[in-house]
Design goal:
Blueprint: H1 2-6, H2 9-25, H3 30-51, H4 55-65
Length: 70
């Protein structure tokens, strides 16, 4: 949560990376799922605005980079 609060894009990406890796070995609890969703939405919004792509395209590209898991 500390990383999420600083608002830096690098920190948001670290949160996503860490939770996605953790999800591969253990089931995420509701709190962790909410943090992951929030971080992914933040990144997708930034991606959409900065690259001028649709939200759907940004979501597809993010999922592809994360290994195709929703």
């Amino acid at each position: 949560m500390v990383r999420m609060k600083d608002g830096r894009l690098e920190s948001i990406c670290q949160v996503i990376r860490d939770l996605v890796v953790f999800r591969q070995t253990k089931k995420l609890n509701d709190y962790d799922n909410a943090i992951l969703d929030r971080a992914q939405n933040f990144l997708i919004n930034e991606w959409q605005i900065s690259l001028g792509v649709s939200r759907a395209q940004a979501e597809r590209e993010l999922q592809a980079l994360l290994g195709g898991k929703p």
